[in-house]
Amino acid sequence: MRAAVLHEIGQDKLEVVDDIEAVAFGPGRVRIRVRATGLCHSDLSAMSGVLPQPGPFVPGHEGAGEVLEVGEGVRNLKPGDRVVVCWLPACGACPSCKRGQTELCLAGFMNAGTPNFRRPGGDVFGFAGTGTFTEEVVVDAGCAVPIPDDVPYDIAALIGCGVTTGLGAALNTADLEAGASVAVIGCGGVGVSVIQGARLKGAAEIVAVDPVAARREAALRFGATRAVAPEELADAKQSVTAGEGFDYVFEVVGKSATARTAYETTRRGGTLVVVGAGAMDDHLKLNMFELFFDEKRILPSMYGGGDVLRSYERTIALWRAGRVDLAGLITHRVPLADINEALDQMRTGTALRTCIEI
Fold first, then answer.
1. What's the predicted TM-score (pTM) here?
2. 210 Rama class: left (phi>0) / alpha (psi -120 to 50) / beta
3. pLDDT per residue over 102-117, tens digit each?
């Protein structure tokens, strides 16, 4: 079957091969025919080595498809079921799950160390234990979340990561108050989902910050009240908050430099929400006095900061009710054979989300 493979960490191009097979099917496992998958910036971060991932590997973790086969012991799925691929499934038994913090369960990360594919040259991993840039993938049953048949595959794929992360950061992690002032730094697919979440919560002012003009224009369509380039953020802070700073600032880039800017843009007593996934050697510098004196809350948001299954259900309900726009997030579509075109669209910022049609 076909799949897009990164042979070595640090390469910037994928090779589409047709000699790969999905492996490790058995008890508790599910074989999925992937129908659509989104390109998330985390895929690029894994390719570059910013996020740890053994190689060679098949990128992709934001996917949807149909179940082809279920292994022994799988009770909640059957062939033909429409599913979202969940890259961070909850085991239900670890301390994090028992505390209700299922987004912190490490079971999904354990999957990343087990090869999902094989080629004549040897084993191939799947990014984050999945690997959706392929025609078929075998995953743990917990990674296949059934969804209603009326949810299109491309919409379902977005729910698998970017939308859940962005909406959840506003609805779960920040739980911001109506009337609040908000700034969102980084307005790709996740950042625009944060904006939609802030709008749902009744934010009075939502300032979108991004260096790419097309993304700023898109942010306004999705609910931002104004959109500025990074060098204009200080003026927006002065104009919107009289220089005090925003009630909530969301950092959706994953860089210490933008996180520092976000901290400085947050008012005293306000909330900084860190959504972007950054590198382990990229350190955010804060001094002890400002931490004490400013009393700003710093809230990391992992995969939307809430129960993933409940977040999926909530997103589908909001989409059905017309309260969130998911179709509008898909600005480009390419076949798997043109996957490197999608990578370029992400790197240049011309796409909010590119849907790879398998």
1. 0.95
2. beta
3. 999 988 777 778 899 9
